[in-house]
TrEMBL record, chain A:
Gene3D superfamilies xref list: von Willebrand factor, type A domain
Protein name stated in the entry: VWA domain-containing protein
Superkingdom field: Bacteria
SMART domains: VWA
UniProtKB/TrEMBL annotation, chain B:
Protein name as it appears in the record: Uncharacterized protein
Entries under Gene3D superfamilies matching the protein: von Willebrand factor, type A domain
Pfam families to which the protein is assigned, alphabetical: VWA_2
Superkingdom: Bacteria
InterPro entries assigned: VWF_A, vWFA_dom_sf
CDD domains given in the database record: vWFA
Amino acid sequence: MIALGFDTPDIFWLAPLAAAPLAFSPLRIRKTAAIAAVPEDRLSAAIAVVLRIAGCAAIAALLVGVAGPYRTGALVDHIGEGAEIVFLIDRSASMNENFAGRAPSGDEQSKARAATQVLRDFVAGPRKDLAGVVGFSTSPMLVVPITDRREAIQAAFAAAARPGLDHTNIGRGLAMALAMFRADESGRSRALVLVSDGAAVIDPHLQTDLRADFKKAGVRLYWLFLRTEGNARLHDIPESGADTPQAAPERHLDLFFQSLGQPYRAFEAESPEQVHAAVEQIDRLERRPVLFTEIAPRQDLSTPVFTLAVLAILVLTLAKLAEIPAPVRRGGAS
Amino acid sequence: MTRANWRDPRLGLLILALALTLAALSGVQTVIRRAVYDVVIIVDITGSMNTRDATLAGRPASRLDFVKAVLRESLASLPCASRVALGVFSERRPFLLFEPVEICGNGAPVAGTLDALDWRMAWEGDSHVAAGLYRSIEMARDATADLMFFTDGQEAPPLPLSGPPAFDGRIGDVHGLIVGVGGYELSPIPKYDDSGREIGFQGVNDVPHENRSGGPPPDAEQREGYDPRNAPFGSRAMVGSEHLSSVREPYLKSLAETTGLRYVHLETADALSRAYRAAAHPRALDAALDLRPACAAIAALMLLALYILPPLLSRLSANRARRAERLRAPSPKPERKAA
């Protein structure tokens, strides 16, 4: 749909003024004793009509120009690649340490900065995602609702590199992230990307709810596990007796995710480079064709309008220049 | 024989109008300085902000909901290219949700985040307002932005006798507002259980009414069970009105004074925007100003003058001339009367 628009349409209240040339003439009115004295002249009549039209056109075109005409950008459908992604980001204090578990020094990056830097690049790329961000620590926080505005998502990632809070309440974070996916209207494939450097025991009641939520949302789950040096790997099986959710929360969270019956992949990253590689892989896996709509930039229509005005005024000016000067009245003193 | 009459003012008007229209056609513009704003907004989400002593659309609303509604409207009135960051305050520090983003392009997600602010986001129940404010000021300074800090000013636990911690920032580094939220009358504070369900109101025994860190008050010796070593605050817990809440305006005003911010009580979006603009430190932004509409408007006025004025003037002068003639040659009627 192509439609016309105006910056200040109120100007058109003045539109009747464009009819002024029909009533008045800027040419000198020549007083003639008897109109019958002038022979009827088709050319003169035509010129008179042309001049009136030029006058009306000039004023009308200028008014339209003042109103600022444009053609509204049409909605254009494109096909791109992307998905509907919610990023669930751990904001516990340990995320501000580096991969060795110490405060970053020199040009070292904290886990939070390393991860969010890579994610910012991911969002800045050519992908056409709808994305949202949830943070979690002691409690979950909705940071940015699902949106196509990349700048807002990047601002959220940037803020996630700031000092974090206390705990890692992963269960409630997952619940909030899943709640972000509303009843499906976009038809996009959905992914949940969990970025954390640890895990915590999820309350059994909440586990049951989460299972149902995961099934309902139909999301693919990615866990970007930022493993700190010396911590257990996801697949390390602790010696018998120590294999409890409390002693090995990461391994048990991994087991819980595997038991969901939804597509799931875990990535263990121990350095910024590995984070980069993992996100690249998610990028590859989450490429589905998506239909997205963009508004084409609006098109300014002032130029043709002003061109018309210039031509019309030019005609009027030429007519004025061609005017025969009034005869000097002689002895006409009153 | 045609010869232009250059002395005719109408020709001059036509040529000027032509020149202005040509200028409009060429796309003239100028650069103007515009004021845009960068602001870090921190909203107190501690328990007392759940107090329902505000009114939204004729219904009682919690302070937090009131802040969200007013702020939403107020943000929409910021000029484009202004940047907004949003964070929450609880315990003793602000927590930034997102860094400053341009408000016009990101209005929808910003409003969505604002709507989702909830006391359940709080990571701890304490509310050290002064400490949180000071760190928010630091945060705004590092972001070279103004600050808007929304709070009811209720310290929980109450401040020790020595008062709020000292402000170690510099006055004038950060401009902005402390926005007092809440009514002036004491109202009960809703209470929630562990799973977030409301279970009535805070009772008098649910909250401490006195801060026992620091020195005891001077009247402690008169208290029941006072013992200088074992019970310097007396043996009974103080009972006060900390379980009820109203906006602590004198306290917030004193904080505004120490930090160089301005204090305003939250009423309407208009009032908030006005107060903010008065207190803010705007950023100058060069923006192109399209002069085409102005040129076209002047040209149109000239053409209208060309068409409407001379005939009107000549008609007027003709009328005047006719009247003058009539006066000079008196009409026959009075003549007859005189005769």
